[in-house]
Design brief:
The longest helix has 19 residues. The chain is 52% helix and 10% strand. Helix 2 packs parallel to helix 3, helix 7 crosses helix 9 and helix 7 crosses helix 11. The chain has eleven helices and five strands.
Length: 269
């Protein structure tokens, strides 16, 4: 994997000020991106399944949230994933016994005590990036420098399609539209092929879906516009889809839309 790509991270943390600290940290650098932030162990696990992050920063207590870090870890061990993220734990618990349990029973790469001298979001992130570099450089085959080589083409496609599916669900595109499947296929093709030529892409999709060239952007446009017009919180939608949108058009154009998500996902795999 190219270490110049931002490390995709899920944050499970119940303290709003701590969350803001990590957000501020990410906003001030280009080597990490948070693909999910939650105070719930259940939601955090769902983010791991759907967002497929490289790493998880897990608060152990979650006293003001839902569940606990321990519940997350117990369920995580039973979850089938094509690639296991690096997990680091943050906690106020100083107990050596608890820390040993996290390392020995749950294979946690690192435990940070929030009360330790010098603790900060930057400390956690910097250690994560060092762990990433170390694991990528291992020679024993446990962790490959190119994670794609660990997967069959079928598993790789399944992993990326899961991520595309999650992104389009967040956007609100309904599966009842033909354009939903066309958009999924278009994004996958853009991710896996070194091309930005939308014209040849639409021709290929027309063959795949056994329809005319013009029907591809038309159906994708219909699916996008339905989600955009019927979303219950337009401000939230602008946070999900951060690319510029022309006000005179009112919603993303099909080509803009698929290129946006292809680049977003490509940067995090």
């Amino acid at each position: 994997m190219d270490n110049e790509k931002p490390m995709s991270i899920v944050l499970v943390e119940d303290d709003p000020s701590a969350c803001q600290g990590f957000v501020d940290c990410a906003n001030n650098r280009t080597d990490i991106v948070f693909v999910g932030i939650t105070d719930s162990s259940d939601v955090g696990l769902e983010y791991v399944r759907t967002k497929l992050p490289e790493a998880v920063i897990l608060d152990m207590e979650l006293n003001r949230g839902e569940g606990s870090g321990l519940e997350f870890l117990e369920r995580f061990q039973k979850t089938e994933l094509s690639l296991r993220p690096i997990i680091v734990v943050t906690t106020r618990n100083r107990s050596d016994l608890v820390h040993e349990q996290l390392h020995d029973e749950h294979n946690i790469e690192w435990v940070f005590c929030k009360l330790q001298k010098g603790y900060s979001p930057e400390m956690v992130v910097n250690h994560l990036l060092k762990l990433r570099a170390y694991l990528h450089n291992r020679k024993d085959g446990e962790y490959s420098a190119n994670l794609r080589t660990l997967e069959s083409p079928e598993k790789f496609k399944k992993r990326i399609m899961q991520r595309i599916d999650a992104e389009l669900n967040d956007f609100g595109i309904s599966s009842r539209y033909k354009g939903r499947k066309m958009a999924e296929d278009a994004i996958f093709l853009l991710i896996t092929r070194d091309t930005k030529d939308s014209d040849s892409l639409y021709h290929e999709l027309a063959k795949i879906h056994k329809t005319s060239y013009n029907n591809i952007p038309r159906n994708i446009k219909t699916a996008i516009e339905d989600a955009w017009q019927n979303h219950d919180d337009i401000d939230k939608l602008f946070k999900i889809y951060t690319a510029p949108v022309r006000r005179d058009i009112g919603s993303p154009l099909p080509t803009e839309f698929i290129h946006y998500y292809a680049e977003k996902i490509r940067r995090s795999i």
